Amino acid sequence: MSELMTPMSFEHLLNWILKEHKQYGTVFGEHDPYVADSKNNREIFGRALETPIGPAAGPHTQLTQNIVAAYYTGSRFFELKTVQKMDGAELAACVNKPCIVADDECYNCEWSTELYVPQAMEEYIKAWFLLKVLAKEYKLGDPDGFQFNISVGYDLEGIKSEKIDTFLNTMQNAADCEVFKNCKQYLLDHVDLFENVTKEDIEAIQPEICNSATISTLHGCPPQEIERIAMHLITEKGYNTFIKCNPTLLGYEYARKTMDDMGYDYVAFGDFHFKDDLQYEDAVPMLQRLMAVCKERNLEFGVKITNTFPVDVKQNELPSEEMYMSGKSLYALSMSVAEKLAKDFDGQLRISYSGGADYFNIKGIVDSGIWPVTMATTMLKPGGYQRVKQMAEILEKENDVFTGINAEAVSALVEAAKKDPHHVKAIKPLPSRKMKESVPLLDCFEAPCKAGCPIHQDITTYLELVSEGKYEEAMEVITEKNPLPFITGTICAHNCMSKCTRNFYEDPVHIRNMKLLAAENGYEAWLKKQGVPAVTKESKAAVVGGGPAGMAAAYFLRRAGMDVTIFEQNDALGGVVRHVIPEFRIASSAIDKDAEILNTLGVHVELNTRVKSVDELKAEGFDKVILAVGASKPGTLRLEEGDATNALEFLADFKANNGELNIGKNVVVIGGGNTAMDTARAAKRTTGVENVYLVYRRTKRFMPADAEELEMAIEDGVEFKELLSPVKVIDGKLTCKVMKLGDIDESGRRSVVETDEICEIAADTVIAAVGEKVPTKFYEANRINVSERGKALVNDDTLESNVEGVYVVGDGLGGPATVVEGIRDGKKAAEAIIGTTLSRDFDEKLESETIFARQGILESEKKGQAESTRCLGCSTICENCVQVCPNRANVAVHVPGMEKAQIIHVDSMCNECGNCKSFCPYSSAPYKDKFTYFEKPEDMSDSTNQGFAILDREKVSCKVRFLGDEFIWTKGEATKLPEGLQKLIEAVIADGIL
To answer: What's 945's DSSP letter?
Structure first.
């Protein structure tokens, strides 16, 4: 594939829009248009503005179709992508690809338009005409209700060059431009294509495309040069002018402290940009002079805040040495610049804003007097352009006239941003949102939450049932694969939520809470309908261990018709969940309800029974034995002096004695996993304890504990002692070596380096939570072969050991794991014993209209069952790659005979920015891995993508690349091309849009 984009002709663009809208009611894949009301108009640069927002100079304003998609969804202020003297192939050679990564905060290594400047100008003129006629045709607002703002750089010499000068003059008045004339003439010649556009409307389209400019300069540009550029645009060209300012105006110390305090301490940048860039003391008098010059000429002047922030590439984020940071991490810095200028200019300096604006903060920005506001990062995420409509709606306001900027309001926004969860970094590195599978060429809609769940629960189905209040039916779906709805509804590690697409919006759907809601409201009715299955299997099974894995194995075996007995050494089922995890984490009554499910199904339970010999069980007639014995052997903490209490022993004592223990005032917990967090929180609740310290050799960010567990420990007042390695405990003090972080190691965590410094911590009791081990000796005593690490060797597909009929599951197999992983193991062993799959899938699909109505809408967690309505229904429709592509290069194609639209990649519209890779739930990059449409057969030589180029539309004949082979395929001929891909090609040709 070539990274050089090929702009579409005006005719192609117009026909695409009209055909797509007529057939599907969409425009470039956008489903929900914004309709402006003139009563909410604002005014800037002497022109009306229906909404004060739009796309920033960047990926969303490079091609005509980008601008059209943005307008359709509510953008009305367009900061066109920067033009400079270096362009086209010369510039493309300097921009490494991929050039965007926006999974969380955003980074990029691109800058100005990748088109040639005359091409860029043509794209903007085509967009100008299309927006004018679309406003009328689809009744989206006033054709004069939007504005284009040009962005130019990077030095005066370049701006004065012939091609940039021509660009400036033409954008100011394009009456004599051939492109302008041709577009107008084409519309006049084809006015019959429209229902609501007349020749008079077309003739009224004015050639004065743009009367405002934003100056973009490279880092290190001298203030004198910035001022000369501004003076040229103001005095020579007559443009209303904004100067783009950088966060470097804040000074290195402020920027570094702010980033560190907000959790972005890993973002690396030096102080050289702060020294080389425009200094604040130089900026203020320069801005004052330019304000005066513009006032004399009745032009508006202001600043654009801010340019992106240069940082170092440290973790191979992008193929570059330096990249530019934007989005959530830039917001506090950008608003801090706005705060300084608002105060020092008494609110009279106009500020155009860009820097992490999104739905959650944009109203505060605009209400403070800062507008227009342009965006990029939020539009690069799932929902894409459609996110703009929601923002446009909340900004609707009559008679909003600019009278100045409220500096106090801006200050309040800055302080709020530094603690706002939408802007501070998560306490731990974000998990991968990707599934393990590669994206298929067809039917790539799958719920990542289901794929991320070890037992593949039908999450979207039961969420929809919960939203409808059908709790009993939701319990039927849940318990088809999960026999422990209360336990997993309370303490499940919820990997499903880590995979939820909503993470790219704001927060995941709180799936675990919805499961618990279904259990609490549907359990009784569901349980009454559960009878005792008849025993239909000749074999009899013993399950040794009544924890989650054992309970699950017994559940599935009994449901399948086998006689099952659980042997549990303690006085109740539940394992570690029952006897170790504190009551404040999960109530015993919740565990009782899950245990009652087994009782209702007729599972036999022998409590207070310790099994030592598998042979004895077999002698009693149990020809199938599942060992779910847990991992309770204490991990080893080597100290030079002194001893530490084992965490599991402490937690068991804590629970058995309701926290009435004598462990002193100062307790130190060593470890960084979930057990360490439970231990520390329990210690805080223990009688007589005043201080609990948690010691770990890395920082919180690199602790293995779940983020939720860390946050709860912090809320409970546990004091974290980071970067400490325990040495000895003596005389009520724990001595530790101080560590420091090194480079990132193979685990993806920062390595630690020992220092010569020593630290002492008051410690009446030291508790070690450093991992538990499997019962190797028990396995060896029962002739089960083990690995060098003492773990049972099993068949990965069945979990059967070398001893026939003996299976190993749960924590006792691989060491401490999650409850749902234990359920997975129990079910896998049960299926191996029964010889068939023991659950079915529920594949209820949401209505497409429901899903599209939810996409692009940001909203925080809802109360009760309404939370389920935040589900995006990814098992029905995904289309993330369609939404996040600025260029619309991933297209959803409606294929006759196929249930859902199929995704096709359009080679000529792609510049390999890589953004779709970030958000595809598969471990793939759609711009490389989806079936691709090539505009011309010769274009295929620049790509390795599987795909096709049309040779003859009437005959439906194409050049095809499939599985590495290239061949000619004509409809009706025998071919190795799968039927689904044949239908996709036929649909593309019949559609006539591409």
So the answer is: -
